[in-house]
TrEMBL record:
This is Peptidoglycan DD-metalloendopeptidase family protein. The chain crosses the membrane at residues 51-72. Residues 256-300 form the LysM domain. Gene3D superfamilies: Glucose Permease (Domain IIA), LysM domain, Resuscitation-promoting factor rpfb. It comes from Paenibacillus oenotherae. It comes from the Bacteria. The keyword Transmembrane helix applies. Keywords: Membrane, Signal, Transmembrane, Transmembrane helix.
């Protein structure tokens, strides 16, 4: 190296100086011999010459040494040793060179996988400052060796259902969006608000409330345990949101057949297989009036998605309140004769039901509350005093004490429900005065009672466990006629109650 060359020059200068010094000293010794007789003053002068020469030599050496030191110092170079995870990789002129390499590699990794969150694994890079004379660190070789040790991986979020891995998405935001999309598939969507034009007179009258049914979603949740965990994965493991969504909702289909057994009904079969009655009706369109027979084969094949979305909804409907009938007796009129004194007027009430659905299929419903919006006006009919025993009043009381509505009248599970289902006190009461027209067993209704109220109305009481009356017997409103049960096409102890008027089925909620 250059530092050794400079030392060589110094030695050469010193060698030349010594040769010159010896020649001068030899000449001085010869002159001294020739002048030994001379004056002492001359001798003293001659003795000072070697001293002067020696001092000059020392001065020259000092100058030469100082110049060499400055030269070496001026040409000393600082550089950095680079370590990765504690192991020496090489040297670089500056830390910025390594930082620029790391930044560039990060951009390259991201550019190679634009739709994935990539992480560059650069390890732990540390530096140690070094100095050397005219040092020339091998920047390119060090950076190349460092780059070879870099690796990379993707980060994602694993979606699991009951511990089973369904798929991996790029981040938490994407996972949340996929799950929200699945829930939205089965959750009722709110209607878009209508644009209302405001006029100067708008304040004078309030807009009437709509009579259309309204739905309020109380909760939306997954039945299964759905978890999300951050994970380090390969870029190829990351799925698109659409892929994970389809995996969650598509599920599997397993063909299932069931042979109807003695005592079976649509509702109890649905409970046995934990499915909605609506699914049974959809897969077996040949079923009429809930009638199934022993030996018939039902198709219970259903799609089983990876997740089950359960929604609890409050459905509010506006129902008509049918007017009651007041009878005024007239002794001057014969039995069977009547005259309308006042026409009745229907009222309105707002009724709220709670519906529980799984993946859009109705699993259960329950009466929540009702609010009378417009009271009905009863009709007044004058009739002869010679009334027939068992003639009804036209006003119906609840056939069950402490009644709770569990299924409403109308379209339910894709079928027409001809009455309402009630639970409560097990004693079944006559809803109005009348004559027992039928007391026995009917297909679908099991043990049932039909009361003819002799005024155009008839009421039906189904699924009884016990009948306490006989055909032709006259009963009064509130009289016990039977015990609640689970006979016929039933799925749990309850009363099925119907009201017929002039042969047409009616919604009992309009009369009770």
């Amino acid at each position: 190296m250059t530092v050794f060359k400079e030392k060589g020059r110094i030695r050469k200068v010193w060698s030349t100086f010594l040769q010159t010094f010896r020649r001068v000293r030899s000449q001085h010794d010869q002159d001294s011999l020739e002048q030994q007789s001379s004056m002492g003053k001359v001798k003293r002068l001659n003795r000072k010459k070697p001293l002067i020469l020696a001092g000059g030599a020392l001065a020259i050496l000092a100058i030469v040494g100082f110049s060499g030191s400055q030269y070496v110092k001026t040409h000393t170079v600082d550089y950095y040793e680079v370590y990765m995870n504690g192991k020496l990789v090489g040297g670089v002129s500056s830390q910025e060179q390594v930082e620029q390499l790391v930044s560039r590699k990060q951009e390259e990794v991201k550019a190679a996988n634009p739709n994935v969150n990539m992480v560059l694994d650069a390890g732990e890079i540390t530096y140690q400052l070094k100095s050397a004379y005219k040092a020339k660190p091998e920047n390119e070789a060090t950076l190349a060796a460092l780059e070879k040790q870099f690796t990379s991986h993707a980060t994602g979020v694993e979606l699991k259902v009951n511990g089973k891995l369904i798929g991996v998405v790029k981040d938490q935001k994407t996972a949340d969006a996929v799950l929200k999309r699945v829930q939205s598939k089965y959750s009722p969507q709110p209607a878009a608000p209508k644009k209302v034009e405001v006029t100067a007179l708008a304040y004078k009258s309030a807009a009437p409330k709509s009579d259309k049914p309204t739905t309020t979603v109380r909760s939306v949740k997954f039945v299964e345990d759905v978890s999300m965990d951050a994970a380090e994965v390969q870029p190829s493991d990351i799925a698109t949101p659409d892929q994970v969504y389809l995996t969650l909702v598509k599920g599997t289909t397993k063909e299932t057949k069931y042979t109807v057994q003695e005592g079976d009904c649509i509702g109890c079969i649905a409970q046995k297989f934990d499915i909605s009655p609506q699914l049974i009706y959809e897969r077996n369109k040949w079923i009429k009036d809930d009638e199934i027979k022993v030996g018939e084969v039902l198709d219970l094949t259903v799609l089983k998605p990876q997740v089950t979305v359960e929604t609890i909804e409050n459905v509010t409907e506006i129902e008509t309140i049918e007017p009651t009938v007041q009878i005024q007796k007239n002794a001057n009129m014969r039995a069977g004769q009547s005259k309308v004194i006042r026409e009745g007027q229907s009222g309105k009430k707002r009724v709220t039901y709670k519906l529980v659905k799984q993946n859009g299929y109705l699993m259960s419903e329950e009466f929540v509350s009702e609010e009378v919006l417009e009271s009905s006006v009863s009709s007044i009919i004058m009739k002869g005093t010679k009334v027939v025993l068992g003639e009804g009043t036209g006003k119906f009381s609840w056939p069950v004490m402490g009644a709770r509505l569990t299924s409403t009248f109308g379209k339910r599970w894709g079928r027409q429900h001809k009455g309402i289902d009630l639970v409560g006190n097990k004693n079944i009461l006559a809803a109005d005065n009348g004559v027992i027209e039928f007391a026995g067993t009917k297909n679908g209704l099991g043990r049932c009672i039909i009361i003819n109220h002799k005024n155009g109305f008839k009421t039906t009481y189904g699924h009884l466990s016990k009948i306490n009356v006989k055909s032709g017997q006259t009963v009064e409103r509130g009289e016990r006629i039977g015990i609640m049960g689970n006979t016929g096409h039933s799925f749990g102890t309850h009363l099925h109650f119907e009201i017929h008027k002039d042969g047409a089925i009616k919604n009992p909620m309009k009369y009770l």
